[in-house]
TrEMBL record:
Native species: Candidatus Nitrotoga arctica
Superkingdom field: Bacteria
Matches recorded under SUPFAM superfamilies: Cytochrome c (SSF46626)
Keywords per UniProt: Heme, Iron, Membrane, Metal-binding, Transmembrane, Transmembrane helix
Transmembrane segments: 7-29
Domain named Cytochrome c: residues: 317-495
Protein name: Cytochrome c domain-containing protein
Matching InterPro entries: Cyt_c-like_dom, Cyt_c-like_dom_sf, Cytochrome_c_Peroxidase/MauG
Length: 495
């Protein structure tokens, strides 16, 4: 009997050990995975693929999707679409949000497309055309950041309120309830960690509370970088604290190698520009997905803008006349054409005293920041070595010009027609965020405050950082007869 009992005890012990090992293996399989959702098509990968920010900064996907339900009072309308984010059929996340299975949970965070994708309507009742690579003219990043921050501080951002919403989503979409582990451990812990992490980040980003609203299509890139480097915002000179500028287009990067990039020309190395952009989406050096970034760089090296002529007619007679005017007034700074970027001053910086545009974006980038930007990848082949302080704004090629409106680096001039007027004749107030296109003046409709239940952002050129000044005078074509201006605009439609 004693021997039999001993055998039973040993069998029980080994069974227990095997059970524990199996549980550890199963737990390890779940919580040790790091698997981004990958797309075979490079454009889909750009729109929804991870750049690595979702590893460290990633929101639990189900929590992110539940926020509009529990914090809807902080949104201007219904859901994330009210912030100008774009939803495509078949996707439960907006364009510019990636998905990655990391540490046992599906995570999502911003990627490059959130700032470089938008929509265009050729007429009021037309289906919006998604354009990948243009500035995100409808997306209000500041409003997004303030929504997330407000929700983190709300009493409803807790497992008590969120888990039932997440549970309801799981039942509705998959027909299954959350597991007990998810309901009572995983999501409560994830919610707490998300609140702490985002609250800490938004404290660093507190400079936005002292700035005028950016409005859709704009960002303060380099003050955000200072926040990530934990600069003491209160101790920075006042003139540095406002650097709002438009989201740029990112087509034809291969042709722009060695040009001075960013609005102020502070870097002349395309790869660094792209890595710095990923840094802005939370993809810090330890988390950056270099394979994903390589795919994006291969794609945008030759990506091109959709042709204006595929959506609207072009007058060939006016084009011929406009080409002559362009060659005389514009080609030296902006390239021989929309595909030929050769020109004596293309990709070079024009001093501020000459160009005369709003100085704030230029002032926001400082020698100290340039020095700090050399530290994130220190000790690796990816270290930034090309950032420099400049004293003006860079002359960019004009590929896809029709989709770059509003114009100037701060988006202070709504149409190309307005840009060709003397400063005092440019609109002092207009509306941003509309994707309805004006093919005559070459820009988005800017004189409509509201369309149904959607309100557009009132842009005031008298506010700091929003000046419409500059790029004016005889050398810039603002003194041309109207006939010549219209011909020039017609030619620029071919870019």
């Amino acid at each position: 009997m004693k021997i039999s009992s001993c055998i039973v005890c040993r069998i029980g012990l080994w069974s227990g050990i095997i059970l524990v090992v199996l549980l550890l293996l199963l737990t390890g399989l779940r919580f040790c995975r790091d698997e981004p959702v990958v797309y075979a098509d490079p454009v889909e990968h750009f729109k929804y693929g991870s750049t690595g920010g979702d590893r460290v900064m990633g929101f639990p996907k189900r929590v992110f999707r539940a926020l509009p339900e529990i914090c809807g009072q902080y949104l201007p309308g219904k859901g994330y679409a009210s912030l100008g984010m774009i939803f495509e059929p078949g996707h439960d996340l907006p364009v510019g949000m990636s998905q990655r299975r990391h540490m046992g949970i599906d995570r999502t965070f911003l990627n490059c497309a959130v700032c470089h994708t938008s929509t265009v309507r050729v007429k009021a009742d037309a289906k919006p055309m998604l354009v990948v690579g243009m500035g995100a003219n409808t997306f209000n990043l500041m409003a997004f950041e303030k929504f997330i921050n407000s929700c983190m501080r709300d009493v409803k951002f807790s497992a008590e309120y969120l888990v039932p919403v997440i549970q309801a989503q799981a039942i509705q979409e998959q027909g299954v309830e959350l597991s007990l582990l998810d309901r009572y451990v995983v999501y409560p812990v994830a919610i707490t960690l998300m609140r702490d992490r985002v609250t800490s980040l938004m404290h660093r980003m507190r400079f936005i509370d002292a700035q005028p609203d950016w409005g859709p299509g704009r960002v303060d890139t380099f003050n955000s970088a200072k926040a990530l480097f934990n600069f003491s915002i209160e101790q920075l000179p006042h003139e540095e604290l406002l650097g709002t500028a438009d989201f740029p287009t990112i087509w034809n990067q291969g042709k722009k190698t060695s040009m001075q990039l960013h609005w102020d020309g502070n870097n002349n190395y395309v790869e660094e520009r792209n890595l710095n952009a990923a840094f802005g989406t939370g993809a810090t050096p330890p988390s950056l997905d270099h394979a994903a970034m390589t795919r994006i760089q291969v794609w945008n090296a030759s990506a091109t803008a959709p042709a204006f002529g595929k959506s609207f007619p072009i007058d060939p007679v006016k084009v011929q006349h406009g080409a002559t005017i362009y060659k005389e007034y514009c080609a030296a700074c902006h390239g021989a054409s929309g595909t030929d970027f050769s020109g004596a001053y293309v990709g070079k910086v024009t001093p501020l005293k000459e160009i005369g545009t709003d100085p704030n974006r230029l002032n926001s980038f400082t020698p100290m920041l340039a020095e700090n930007l050399g530290t994130p990848y220190a000790g690796t082949a990816y270290r930034f070595t090309h950032f420099r302080k400049t004293w003006g704004y860079a002359n960019a090629p004009l590929d896809g010009l029709w989709l770059r409106a509003p114009y100037l680096h701060n988006g202070s001039v709504p149409t190309l027609w307005d840009l060709l007027q003397p400063v005092n004749q440019r609109p002092a107030h207009f509306y941003r965020g509309n994707d309805l296109y004006d093919p005559v003046k070459l820009g988005f409709v800017a004189d409509v405050a509201k369309d149904g239940d959607k309100s557009y952002f009132a842009y005031d050129t008298d506010k700091p950082g929003n000046s419409k000044a500059g790029h004016t005078g005889k050398a810039y074509g603002t003194e041309l007869p109207d006939e010549d201006k219209w011909a020039l605009i017609e030619y620029l439609k071919t870019f």
